[in-house]
Amino acid sequence: MKPQRPAPDASSADFWEPLYQSAPPPTGTRPNARLTELVRDLRLIPGHAYDLGCGHGGDALWLASLGWLVTAVDVSATAVSRVEAAASDQGIGDRVRAEQHDLSRSVPTGPFDLVYACYFHSPVTIDRTDVLRRSAQQVAPGGYLIIIDHASVAPWSWRLDDEDPVFPAPEETANALTLSTTWRTERCERSELTATGPDGTTATVADNLIALHRQDT
Ligand SMILES: C[S@@+](CC[C@H](N)C(=O)[O-])C[C@H]1O[C@@H](n2cnc3c(N)ncnc32)[C@H](O)[C@@H]1O
Q: How many helices (H) and strands (E) does the chain have?
């Protein structure tokens, strides 16, 4: 199903739920390569993670397979129920709490050792910065905030007909969080990689990576 630009008063669920309903459940999920690199490079120790806008849950399920307890949140009830089913199929149902929230209205209970947002972009009018800022406040002392944003559109990704997306620079996104100085910046960069699309073609795509470490204990 090709998405249509949402009406100005559409809710996030109005836009995202039909997309998930019309897409078949994935036959398998894989984690984002950036996340796997960051978890390795930052030597993150499993604790309680929060994946906001988890979609089909490839990242949440991967973190749970490493021993994390993961609260996986999405506005789509279909996405949430698929994450729950996949966790149960993989024998990690006890480590995945899949919850439906429209994060502009309600949030899961924290704090979390890792707050993670991957491609939390939406054509629906929501205050994304406010969602990210409030999520950052749910990071426990000593914990991490990781944001992976698009910095380009892959040829195989959908885009709205009249859309010419502009992505904020990583510094802009990080500064908008207005965090205190008790955070150390581990990554704040644009990064390109060769990615493979669903049809097997490859293309160079760019992401913005932000990894921040809360220093107070
Ligand atoms: C571009 S997808 C990214 C999905 C996944 N994180 C990934 O990396 O593949 C954005 C996700 O955010 C979810 N989302 C959008 N607005 C939301 C909101 N207000 N509250 C919660 N989830 C939302 C969508 O349902 C969708 O699953």
A: 6, 7
Structure token digits, residue 40: 């390795």
Tell me which of 158 and 58 has the higher pLDDT: 58
pLDDT digits (tens, 9 = 90+) for 115-170: 999 999 999 989 999 999 999 999 999 999 999 999 998 888 876 666 677 889 99
- Please give the tally of structural domains in the chain: 1
Please indicate, yes or no, if residue 161 is contained in any of the structural domains: no
Domain that holds residue 27: 12-156+166-214
Give a yes or no: residue 117 inside a domain: yes
Atom 3 of ligand 1: nearest residue by CA position: 119
Residue to probe by mutation, ligand 1, list 83, 122, 167, 209, most atoms within 8 Å of CB: 122
Rounded Cα distance, 149 and 27, in Å: 25
